[in-house]
Design brief:
The structure is a single chain. The protein is mainly beta. The chain has one domain (about 10-30, about 50-240). It contains two helices and eleven strands. Strands 1, 2, 3, 4, 5, 6, 7, 8, 9, 10 and 11 form an eleven-stranded mixed beta sheet that branches. The chain is globular, with a radius of gyration of 17 Å.
């Protein structure tokens, strides 16, 4: 059974071009643990509502089925334009990491006070970017063998360097991110209440089935992930035009 080593801050930072640090002992990810599937079902993607900028942050709660983010300019001025993305990445440091996966790609309106991402529009992470038990360190060659199967993503605003109206993997790896959501999006094929070892320190309230946003729970210099009400509105910190900026990322552990 393969064990999960410490996730690399340097690797993730090089992928996302921010000082992202995802650290923590992930030993024994493939250990057996009781799994309880959720009773709910995922709606057909054909019923997907369109992406919209949503109401202003003080206009009301987040509508059901959305990741809602209040745009917070990091300085005086207009937030930088770009692409709004949900990016899945492999945080296990064994072997060569697969390319990050673009789970969602949409235009970011810098004049919007709030942006809402439909959860049904976020692609499920592929096997290669999941944390799980594998027969070898190469995620592309050795698929997940058992549960848990956990994916982790960040919400980012990324400059569209080639102006093609889409996020490219090459842009994630080479272009500066100008905004980051103060949350994590996580995916699991099953629900775990509580989270099994070694995920208990990361998912302090347990792990929900499906793709859902999690709040960041401050613990000194790091953050853990917690379950929140479905109408939670998270902060999206975005650099402003014409000013130097460093969008501080979460340090998830």
């Amino acid at each position: 059974m393969r064990s999960m080593a410490r996730a690399r801050a340097a690797t993730v930072a090089s992928l996302l071009r921010v000082g992202l640090s995802i650290v923590g002992a992930m030993a024994g990810c493939g250990d057996d643990a009781p799994a309880t599937p959720d009773a709910g079902t995922v709606p057909d993607a054909r019923t997907l509502p369109p992406l919209d900028s949503g109401p202003e942050p003080d206009a009301g709660p987040c509508p059901p089925g959305f990741i809602c983010l209040a745009v917070r300019p990091m300085g005086s001025g207009t937030p930088m334009a770009g692409r709004l993305g949900v990016i899945w990445f492999q945080i296990d440091d064994s072997g060569t990491d697969p390319a990050p996966q673009i789970g969602f790609d949409g235009a970011f309106d810098p004049t919007a006070g709030q942006v809402n991402i439909p959860l049904l529009a976020v692609d499920t992470p592929s096997d290669a970017v999941l944390l799980c038990s594998r027969a070898c360190p190469d995620e592309e060659s050795c698929p997940c063998m058992s549960e848990p199967r956990i994916g982790v993503a960040l919400v980012v605003v990324l400059q569209d360097a080639n102006a093609n109206g889409a996020i490219d993997v090459s842009e994630i790896q080479t272009t500066g991110i100008v905004g980051i959501g103060w949350l994590a999006v996580a995916y699991s094929t099953l629900a775990y209440m509580p989270a099994p070892s070694p995920f208990g320190g990361l998912f302090v309230d347990g792990i929900q089935m499906g793709k859902l946003p999690y709040t960041l729970i401050e613990d000194g210099a790091v953050q853990h992930l917690g379950i929140v009400p479905t109408d939670t509105i998270f902060d999206l910190n975005v650099c402003v035009e014409g000013a130097p900026c460093d969008a501080p990322p979460p340090s998830i552990m």
